[in-house]
Design brief:
296 residues; four-stranded parallel sheet; Rossmann fold; alpha/beta; 13% strand
Length: 296
Protein backbone atom coordinates (compact mmCIF):
# COMPACT_ATOMS: atom_id res chain seq x y z
CA UNK A 1 0.00 0.00 0.00
CA UNK A 2 2.78 2.42 0.91
CA UNK A 3 4.46 1.76 -2.46
CA UNK A 4 1.18 2.45 -4.26
CA UNK A 5 0.70 5.71 -2.37
CA UNK A 6 4.28 6.72 -3.14
CA UNK A 7 3.72 6.00 -6.83
CA UNK A 8 0.50 8.06 -6.87
CA UNK A 9 2.29 10.98 -5.20
CA UNK A 10 5.12 10.75 -7.74
CA UNK A 11 2.64 10.70 -10.61
CA UNK A 12 0.88 13.73 -9.17
CA UNK A 13 4.13 15.68 -9.33
CA UNK A 14 4.81 14.47 -12.86
CA UNK A 15 1.31 15.23 -14.14
CA UNK A 16 0.67 18.92 -14.88
CA UNK A 17 -2.24 20.33 -12.84
CA UNK A 18 -2.95 23.07 -15.40
CA UNK A 19 -5.04 22.85 -18.54
CA UNK A 20 -2.83 22.54 -21.59
CA UNK A 21 -2.63 25.32 -24.17
CA UNK A 22 -4.00 23.96 -27.43
CA UNK A 23 -2.10 25.24 -30.47
CA UNK A 24 -3.33 24.67 -34.01
CA UNK A 25 -0.88 25.42 -36.82
CA UNK A 26 -1.49 25.49 -40.54
CA UNK A 27 1.85 23.81 -41.29
CA UNK A 28 3.83 21.30 -39.24
CA UNK A 29 6.84 23.58 -38.69
CA UNK A 30 4.85 25.90 -36.43
CA UNK A 31 3.33 22.95 -34.56
CA UNK A 32 6.79 21.42 -34.06
CA UNK A 33 8.12 24.72 -32.70
CA UNK A 34 5.13 25.19 -30.38
CA UNK A 35 5.57 21.66 -29.05
CA UNK A 36 9.29 22.23 -28.47
CA UNK A 37 8.73 25.54 -26.71
CA UNK A 38 5.63 24.42 -24.83
CA UNK A 39 6.69 21.02 -23.58
CA UNK A 40 4.16 19.53 -21.17
CA UNK A 41 2.13 22.74 -21.03
CA UNK A 42 1.19 22.67 -24.72
CA UNK A 43 -0.58 20.34 -27.11
CA UNK A 44 0.22 21.30 -30.71
CA UNK A 45 -1.24 19.93 -33.93
CA UNK A 46 -0.79 20.78 -37.60
CA UNK A 47 -3.76 21.01 -39.94
CA UNK A 48 -1.72 19.61 -42.84
CA UNK A 49 1.13 17.15 -43.22
CA UNK A 50 4.63 18.03 -44.38
CA UNK A 51 4.25 16.32 -47.75
CA UNK A 52 1.10 18.29 -48.65
CA UNK A 53 0.98 21.47 -50.71
CA UNK A 54 -0.06 24.22 -48.26
CA UNK A 55 -1.68 26.19 -51.08
CA UNK A 56 -4.31 23.54 -51.75
CA UNK A 57 -5.02 21.67 -48.52
CA UNK A 58 -8.43 20.08 -48.07
CA UNK A 59 -10.79 21.69 -45.56
CA UNK A 60 -11.76 18.74 -43.35
CA UNK A 61 -14.42 18.47 -40.60
CA UNK A 62 -11.68 17.32 -38.22
CA UNK A 63 -9.96 20.67 -38.76
CA UNK A 64 -13.07 22.48 -37.51
CA UNK A 65 -13.01 20.40 -34.32
CA UNK A 66 -9.33 21.14 -33.75
CA UNK A 67 -9.81 24.85 -34.32
CA UNK A 68 -12.80 24.89 -31.99
CA UNK A 69 -10.54 23.63 -29.18
CA UNK A 70 -7.58 25.86 -29.99
CA UNK A 71 -6.26 28.62 -27.75
CA UNK A 72 -3.83 29.72 -30.46
CA UNK A 73 -3.78 29.47 -34.25
CA UNK A 74 -0.47 30.03 -36.04
CA UNK A 75 -0.76 30.60 -39.78
CA UNK A 76 1.66 31.64 -42.51
CA UNK A 77 -0.48 34.44 -43.92
CA UNK A 78 0.31 36.27 -47.16
CA UNK A 79 -2.64 34.42 -48.69
CA UNK A 80 -0.92 31.01 -48.55
CA UNK A 81 -3.89 29.41 -46.80
CA UNK A 82 -6.60 31.69 -48.23
CA UNK A 83 -8.08 28.89 -50.34
CA UNK A 84 -8.99 26.69 -47.38
CA UNK A 85 -8.48 28.26 -43.94
CA UNK A 86 -11.08 31.10 -43.78
CA UNK A 87 -14.18 28.85 -43.90
CA UNK A 88 -12.67 26.60 -41.24
CA UNK A 89 -12.03 29.60 -39.00
CA UNK A 90 -15.62 30.75 -39.40
CA UNK A 91 -17.07 27.29 -38.76
CA UNK A 92 -14.91 26.80 -35.66
CA UNK A 93 -17.09 29.30 -33.72
CA UNK A 94 -14.03 30.04 -31.59
CA UNK A 95 -13.67 33.72 -30.73
CA UNK A 96 -10.27 33.10 -29.12
CA UNK A 97 -8.53 32.54 -32.46
CA UNK A 98 -10.20 35.06 -34.74
CA UNK A 99 -8.14 37.87 -36.36
CA UNK A 100 -7.23 40.55 -33.87
CA UNK A 101 -7.44 38.24 -30.87
CA UNK A 102 -4.58 37.11 -28.61
CA UNK A 103 -4.97 33.60 -30.00
CA UNK A 104 -4.43 34.62 -33.63
CA UNK A 105 -0.81 34.71 -34.85
CA UNK A 106 -0.15 35.59 -38.47
CA UNK A 107 3.50 34.61 -38.88
CA UNK A 108 3.96 36.87 -41.90
CA UNK A 109 3.67 39.90 -39.59
CA UNK A 110 6.86 39.04 -37.69
CA UNK A 111 9.24 38.51 -40.62
CA UNK A 112 10.67 40.73 -43.33
CA UNK A 113 8.90 39.55 -46.47
CA UNK A 114 10.61 39.26 -49.85
CA UNK A 115 9.29 39.61 -53.41
CA UNK A 116 6.47 42.02 -52.60
CA UNK A 117 4.91 42.76 -56.01
CA UNK A 118 4.37 46.33 -57.16
CA UNK A 119 1.24 45.37 -59.10
CA UNK A 120 -0.98 42.30 -59.19
CA UNK A 121 -2.87 40.77 -62.10
CA UNK A 122 -3.91 37.27 -63.10
CA UNK A 123 -1.30 37.08 -65.87
CA UNK A 124 1.43 36.88 -63.22
CA UNK A 125 0.21 33.52 -61.94
CA UNK A 126 -0.22 32.71 -58.24
CA UNK A 127 1.54 35.81 -56.93
CA UNK A 128 0.85 36.76 -53.30
CA UNK A 129 0.13 40.48 -52.76
CA UNK A 130 1.88 40.58 -49.39
CA UNK A 131 5.07 38.92 -50.60
CA UNK A 132 6.57 35.46 -50.92
CA UNK A 133 4.93 33.33 -48.19
CA UNK A 134 7.53 30.55 -48.08
CA UNK A 135 9.58 32.12 -45.29
CA UNK A 136 9.30 28.90 -43.27
CA UNK A 137 12.20 27.77 -45.50
CA UNK A 138 14.48 30.46 -44.07
CA UNK A 139 16.21 29.62 -40.76
CA UNK A 140 16.31 33.27 -39.67
CA UNK A 141 12.65 33.85 -40.52
CA UNK A 142 11.56 30.65 -38.78
CA UNK A 143 13.49 31.75 -35.70
CA UNK A 144 11.52 35.02 -35.72
CA UNK A 145 8.29 33.02 -35.87
CA UNK A 146 9.49 30.89 -32.95
CA UNK A 147 10.13 34.03 -30.92
CA UNK A 148 6.60 35.21 -31.65
CA UNK A 149 5.12 31.84 -30.61
CA UNK A 150 7.16 31.94 -27.39
CA UNK A 151 5.89 35.43 -26.61
CA UNK A 152 2.28 34.50 -27.37
CA UNK A 153 2.39 31.35 -25.21
CA UNK A 154 3.52 33.44 -22.23
CA UNK A 155 0.63 35.85 -22.74
CA UNK A 156 -1.96 33.11 -23.09
CA UNK A 157 -0.52 31.09 -20.19
CA UNK A 158 1.22 33.58 -17.87
CA UNK A 159 1.52 31.00 -15.08
CA UNK A 160 3.95 29.11 -17.29
CA UNK A 161 6.24 32.08 -17.98
CA UNK A 162 9.26 30.68 -16.13
CA UNK A 163 8.77 27.31 -17.81
CA UNK A 164 8.58 28.88 -21.29
CA UNK A 165 11.60 31.07 -20.53
CA UNK A 166 13.66 27.99 -19.77
CA UNK A 167 12.61 26.20 -22.92
CA UNK A 168 13.22 29.31 -25.02
CA UNK A 169 16.79 29.51 -23.70
CA UNK A 170 17.39 25.96 -24.90
CA UNK A 171 15.76 26.69 -28.26
CA UNK A 172 17.84 29.84 -28.77
CA UNK A 173 21.08 28.04 -27.93
CA UNK A 174 20.19 25.21 -30.31
CA UNK A 175 19.46 27.72 -33.06
CA UNK A 176 22.82 29.42 -32.61
CA UNK A 177 24.67 26.10 -32.62
CA UNK A 178 22.79 24.60 -35.57
CA UNK A 179 22.95 27.68 -37.81
CA UNK A 180 26.70 27.92 -37.25
CA UNK A 181 26.97 24.25 -38.22
CA UNK A 182 24.81 24.69 -41.35
CA UNK A 183 26.69 27.79 -42.49
CA UNK A 184 30.03 26.01 -42.13
CA UNK A 185 28.83 23.08 -44.24
CA UNK A 186 27.30 25.33 -46.89
CA UNK A 187 30.22 27.77 -47.13
CA UNK A 188 31.91 25.94 -50.08
CA UNK A 189 28.63 26.25 -52.05
CA UNK A 190 28.37 30.02 -51.80
CA UNK A 191 27.44 31.45 -55.21
CA UNK A 192 26.24 28.07 -56.52
CA UNK A 193 23.49 28.40 -59.13
CA UNK A 194 20.26 26.45 -58.81
CA UNK A 195 16.94 26.12 -60.61
CA UNK A 196 13.77 25.86 -58.53
CA UNK A 197 10.53 24.13 -59.39
CA UNK A 198 8.34 26.68 -57.59
CA UNK A 199 9.61 30.08 -56.43
CA UNK A 200 9.56 29.00 -52.82
CA UNK A 201 13.22 28.66 -51.90
CA UNK A 202 14.14 32.36 -51.93
CA UNK A 203 14.53 32.74 -48.17
CA UNK A 204 16.73 29.66 -47.79
CA UNK A 205 18.83 30.46 -50.87
CA UNK A 206 19.48 34.01 -49.69
CA UNK A 207 20.43 32.76 -46.23
CA UNK A 208 22.73 30.07 -47.65
CA UNK A 209 24.32 32.27 -50.33
CA UNK A 210 23.00 30.26 -53.27
CA UNK A 211 21.58 31.84 -56.43
CA UNK A 212 18.38 30.94 -58.26
CA UNK A 213 18.65 31.41 -62.03
CA UNK A 214 15.12 30.33 -62.91
CA UNK A 215 12.08 28.22 -62.11
CA UNK A 216 10.52 25.27 -63.90
CA UNK A 217 7.09 26.80 -63.40
CA UNK A 218 6.71 29.51 -66.07
CA UNK A 219 4.78 31.53 -63.49
CA UNK A 220 4.07 30.72 -59.83
CA UNK A 221 1.44 28.00 -59.60
CA UNK A 222 1.43 27.32 -63.37
CA UNK A 223 2.65 23.75 -64.07
CA UNK A 224 5.81 23.44 -66.19
CA UNK A 225 5.39 22.88 -69.91
CA UNK A 226 7.82 21.17 -72.27
CA UNK A 227 8.17 24.48 -74.11
CA UNK A 228 9.07 26.46 -71.00
CA UNK A 229 11.49 23.81 -69.73
CA UNK A 230 13.18 23.72 -73.14
CA UNK A 231 13.46 27.53 -73.21
CA UNK A 232 14.82 27.61 -69.65
CA UNK A 233 17.36 24.94 -70.50
CA UNK A 234 18.60 27.05 -73.41
CA UNK A 235 18.73 30.15 -71.21
CA UNK A 236 20.90 28.55 -68.51
CA UNK A 237 23.28 26.64 -70.75
CA UNK A 238 26.83 27.46 -69.74
CA UNK A 239 25.78 28.96 -66.39
CA UNK A 240 26.94 25.91 -64.44
CA UNK A 241 23.64 25.12 -62.77
CA UNK A 242 24.46 22.57 -60.10
CA UNK A 243 21.09 21.70 -58.55
CA UNK A 244 17.42 21.52 -59.42
CA UNK A 245 15.51 21.75 -56.15
CA UNK A 246 11.85 21.15 -55.50
CA UNK A 247 9.36 20.18 -52.86
CA UNK A 248 8.44 16.55 -52.48
CA UNK A 249 4.80 17.15 -53.42
CA UNK A 250 5.48 18.56 -56.93
CA UNK A 251 5.50 16.35 -60.08
CA UNK A 252 8.96 15.21 -61.09
CA UNK A 253 8.80 14.20 -64.78
CA UNK A 254 9.98 17.50 -66.30
CA UNK A 255 12.31 18.10 -63.36
CA UNK A 256 14.15 14.88 -64.18
CA UNK A 257 14.28 15.89 -67.84
CA UNK A 258 15.74 19.31 -67.06
CA UNK A 259 18.28 17.89 -64.62
CA UNK A 260 19.38 15.25 -67.11
CA UNK A 261 19.79 17.72 -69.98
CA UNK A 262 21.47 20.42 -67.90
CA UNK A 263 23.81 18.13 -65.99
CA UNK A 264 22.36 19.34 -62.68
CA UNK A 265 21.46 17.17 -59.71
CA UNK A 266 17.75 16.92 -58.87
CA UNK A 267 17.07 17.24 -55.15
CA UNK A 268 13.63 16.50 -53.68
CA UNK A 269 13.74 18.42 -50.43
CA UNK A 270 11.36 18.72 -47.47
CA UNK A 271 10.03 22.25 -47.40
CA UNK A 272 8.17 21.45 -44.17
CA UNK A 273 8.88 19.21 -41.20
CA UNK A 274 7.75 15.63 -41.63
CA UNK A 275 7.97 15.71 -45.42
CA UNK A 276 10.87 13.25 -45.41
CA UNK A 277 11.73 10.44 -42.97
CA UNK A 278 13.36 11.68 -39.79
CA UNK A 279 12.47 15.36 -40.27
CA UNK A 280 9.91 15.86 -37.51
CA UNK A 281 11.69 18.87 -36.00
CA UNK A 282 12.83 22.07 -37.68
CA UNK A 283 16.42 21.15 -36.81
CA UNK A 284 16.07 17.81 -38.58
CA UNK A 285 14.43 19.44 -41.59
CA UNK A 286 17.33 21.81 -42.17
CA UNK A 287 19.84 19.07 -41.38
CA UNK A 288 18.28 17.05 -44.20
CA UNK A 289 18.35 19.97 -46.66
CA UNK A 290 21.94 20.91 -45.85
CA UNK A 291 23.11 17.31 -45.99
CA UNK A 292 21.49 16.78 -49.39
CA UNK A 293 23.12 19.90 -50.79
CA UNK A 294 26.55 19.07 -49.43
CA UNK A 295 26.54 15.32 -50.08
CA UNK A 296 29.54 14.27 -52.15
Amino acid sequence: MRKLIAMLIALAFLTPLHAKVHVAATIPDYAAIAAELGGERVEAISLIKGAQDPHFADALPSHVVRLNRADLIVLTGCGLESGWLPPLMMQSRNDKIQPGSLGYLDASTVVTLKEIPMTIDKSQGDVHPGGNPHFYLGPAELYAVAAAIYDRLKKIDPEGTAYYDGRWSIFRATYQRKTAEWRAKLAPLKGTKVVEYHKSWLYFLDWAGLISVGALEPKPGIPPSVRHVTDLLAAVQGKNVRFVIQEIYHPQKLSHLFAEKSGAKLLLLPSMTGAAPGTDTVWAKFDYIVNQLTEK
